[in-house]
Design brief:
Keywords: Membrane, Transmembrane, Transmembrane helix
Distance between the termini: 77 Å
Oligomer: single chain
Largest sheet: none
Order of helices and strands: HHHHHH
Number of domains: 2
Shape: elongated
Strand content: under 5%
Number of strands: 0
Structural class: mainly alpha
Helix content: over 70%
Radius of gyration: 30 Å
Length: about 120
């Protein structure tokens, strides 16, 4: 009986040690994968998108217009909606966001872009 108890104590101690070792190994692997994913670079199509090259010279509204006409995926990132959805929304809210008392030079489309940005 004494031998059985000794064997049980040794085997439980070894399994606990193994569990700790596997736990440490699992933690190490998780950290390693997280670091690798963080360091992995995204393949880019452009170094600088063509519509962004003249952005500082032409201004944000011109940048938006070029984006709307030429680059629909970037427009979606910029406004979180497609061009057709943007046009529908603009038709619905343009009368409400137009200023009638003051001539400040900002059209409803510009106001909506600024709001969505």
């Amino acid at each position: 009986m004494n031998l059985v108890i000794d064997y049980y104590l040794v085997s439980t101690h070894e399994s606990e040690t193994n569990r700790k070792a596997f736990g440490a190994l699992g933690l190490f692997l998780c950290i390693y994968v997280a670091i690798k994913l963080k360091k992995r670079r995204q393949l880019r199509l452009y170094k600088v998108r063509p519509i962004n090259r003249n952005r500082r010279k032409t201004g944000n509204y011109r940048y938006y217009k070029d984006m709307k006409l030429k680059d629909s995926s970037q427009f979606f990132k910029y406004t979180c909606m497609t061009v057709s959805m943007f046009d529908k929304l603009l038709k619905k809210v343009s009368s409400k966001i137009t200023k009638q008392t003051r001539s400040d030079g900002i059209c409803p489309e510009q106001r909506l872009v600024i709001t969505l940005q």
